[in-house]
Amino acid sequence: MKSLKTACEVFFWVDSTIVLYWLPSCPSRWKTFVANRVSTIQSTTGSCSWQHVLGESNPADLISRGVNPADIVNLEFWWIGPQWLSVSSYHWPRTVLPACDLSTMPESKGNVAMMSVAVAEPSLSARLFSRYSSFTKLRRSIAYWMRYLRSLRAAVQKTKPEPFESLSTPDLRDADLALCRIAQREMFSKELSKIRRNVISFQHR
């Protein structure tokens, strides 16, 4: 094909309908033997047209029909093919392939079963408790964070910020309550949701 100097329309013929199902498909969907050959044919023939030819019209079948190789050179059919090939392509036999599930073909890799595993995100309390080696360090860290948030709120509201000093007993108690609320929201989320719905329902009555 590469040696052709004149641009022309090229047709290929094959007497196997299953090959016509293979060729337009992605090579990776077929088993290795077929995939390699489909890939080679696709890269070699490009967008050329592939058509089906009946065995009786296929010169390549002469040997399988018992014709003596020595006699082939004298057969017109071997050199020019079927008679309809010498007329306009408009009169050639038309190839219409019925719909087919390619995954059911013998050379198909078939459907690959896929399994997805959902990995649960660690809860907030789990991340907090795993981050600190002791509850004392955790509660003091939470207390400082709460103080920092209060100072940010004071800056936004333009109010007097808290004086910077050591953590007090109320600070640590607030941290304990905050940790309890986090644990309650995670361990009793359904119960809390029902309580909130009841409160909202009661407020609207």
Write the SSE topology:
Layout: E1 11-14, H1 17-22, H2 32-45, E2 49-52, H3 69-72, H4 76-80, H5 124-131, H6 135-157, H7 169-187, H8 189-203
Parallel strand pairs: 1-2
Helix pairs in contact: 6-7
Description:
By secondary structure, the protein is mainly α. The chain folds into two domains: 11-104, no CATH class; 124-203, no CATH class. Helix content is 46%, strand content 4%. The chain is built from eight helices and two strands, in the order E-H-H-E-H-H-H-H-H-H. The chain has helices at 17-22, 32-45, 69-72, 76-80, 124-131, 135-157, 169-187, 189-203; strands at 11-14, 49-52. Strands 1-2 form a two-stranded parallel ribbon. Helix 6 packs across helix 7.
Radius of gyration: 39 Å
Strand order of the largest sheet: 1-2
Compute the number of strand runs. 2
**Termini separation:** 85 Å
Mean pLDDT across residues: 77
The share of residues in helices is: 40-55%
Using the alpha-carbon principal axes, give the shape. Answer: rod-shaped
Q: Sheet with the most strands?
A: 2 strands, parallel
Portion of residues in beta strands equals under 5%
Q: How many individual helices?
A: 8
Structural class: mainly alpha
Contiguous uncertain segments of 5+ residues: none
- What order do the helices and strands follow? EHHEHHHHHH
Total individual domains = 2
Describe this structure in a few short sentences.
By secondary structure, the chain is mostly helical. It has helices at residues 17-22, 32-45, 69-72, 76-80, 124-131, 135-157, 169-187, 189-203, and strands at residues 11-14, 49-52.
